[in-house]
């Protein structure tokens, strides 16, 4: 599972460790590279995941969801081995980022880091964010250190899968969104849901997520389970009886 822009593997574990552990699925939360090659690091981790024995689920949060879905679509286009399913939380745009709220936020934070340093950006975030989010940002951003601005710029410029890429992902997908998150609009997740052939979308309120980040992981995992079950039932109805 891949972190979002400016986030880290600690937050990924808080979202996905419990829901996946309840199913006996081992979580590998990818630690981001702290600079402009953050996307390359994510893709390398996804390539490495396919070398492990058994079926593999991939996914992530926000930027991590974009990179995982785009990588999976590329694998399908190349007819190579790919994941058995996807867990995608908080997609922020489709295709090119344009002026999506998340890319504007990443650019603004990168500019703040360059003007005021990481400490100044953390102070600004703490002044305008709920306590749980301020604590997460303070921890993660300080770990990025001087690489934070470059990592944010890379995230802001990275395309998400476009409509054709999403339509090509015919594996079970659990899609998770927050109904009132202005940075990751519910409408984007709904658009992805309409394009993905085998996806189930589940959502939760932002306040609930702030109190319990695992609510997002549970939504994605439950969505994936339902998508996989629907696919199995569909296949069974097409199987001729001897």
Question: Which tags fit this structure?
Answer:
alpha/beta; disordered C terminus; hydrolase activity; hydrolase; four-stranded parallel beta sheet; 242 residues; Alpha/beta hydrolase; 10 helices; Rossmann fold
Quick summary of this structure?
The protein has 242 residues and is of the alpha/beta class. It is 57% helix and 9% strand. It is built from 10 helices and 4 strands, in the order ααβαβααααβαβαα.
The parts where pLDDT drops under 50 for at least 5 residues are: 235-242
> Briefly, what CATH class of the domain at 9-98 and 160-238?
Alpha Beta
Q: What is the N-to-C succession of helices and strands?
A: HHEHEHHHHEHEHH
What name does CATH use for the topology of the domain at 9-98 and 160-238? Rossmann fold
**What is the CA–CA distance across the termini?**
42 Å
What composes the largest sheet? Answer: 4 strands, parallel
User: Can you tell me the overall shape?
Assistant: globular
Helix content: 55-70%
Strand order within the widest sheet? 1-2-3-4
Whole-angstrom Rg: 18 Å
Estimated structural class = alpha/beta
Q: Which band does the percent of strand residues land in?
A: 5-15%
Number of helices: 10
Number of strands: 4
Average pLDDT works out at 93
Instruction: Supply the CATH architecture of the domain at 9-98 and 160-238.
Output: 3-Layer(aba) Sandwich
């Amino acid at each position: 599972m891949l972190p979002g822009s400016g986030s880290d593997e600690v937050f990924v574990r808080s979202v996905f460790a419990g829901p996946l552990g309840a199913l006996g699925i081992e979580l590998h939360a990818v630690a981001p590279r702290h600079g402009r090659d953050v996307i390359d690091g994510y893709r390398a981790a996804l390539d490495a995941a396919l070398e492990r024995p058994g079926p593999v689920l991939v996914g992530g949060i926000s930027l991590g969801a974009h990179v995982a879905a785009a990588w999976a679509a590329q694998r399908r286009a190349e007819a190579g081995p790919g994941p058995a399913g996807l867990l995608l939380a908080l997609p922020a745009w489709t295709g090119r980022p344009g002026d999506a709220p998340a890319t504007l936020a990443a650019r603004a934070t990168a500019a703040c880091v360059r003007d005021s340093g990481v400490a100044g950006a953390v102070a600004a975030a703490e002044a305008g964010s709920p306590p749980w989010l301020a604590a997460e940002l303070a921890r993660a951003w300080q770990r990025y250190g001087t690489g934070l601005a470059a990592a944010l710029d890379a995230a802001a410029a990275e395309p998400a899968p476009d409509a054709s890429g999403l339509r090509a992902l015919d594996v079970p997908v659990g899609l998770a969104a927050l109904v009132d998150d202005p940075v990751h609009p519910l409408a984007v997740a709904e658009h992805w849901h309409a394009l993905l052939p085998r996806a189930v979308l589940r959502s939760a309120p932002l306040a609930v997520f702030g109190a319990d980040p695992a609510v997002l992981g549970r939504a994605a995992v439950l969505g994936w389970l339902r998508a996989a079950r629907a696919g199995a039932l569909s296949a069974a109805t097409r199987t001729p009886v001897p």
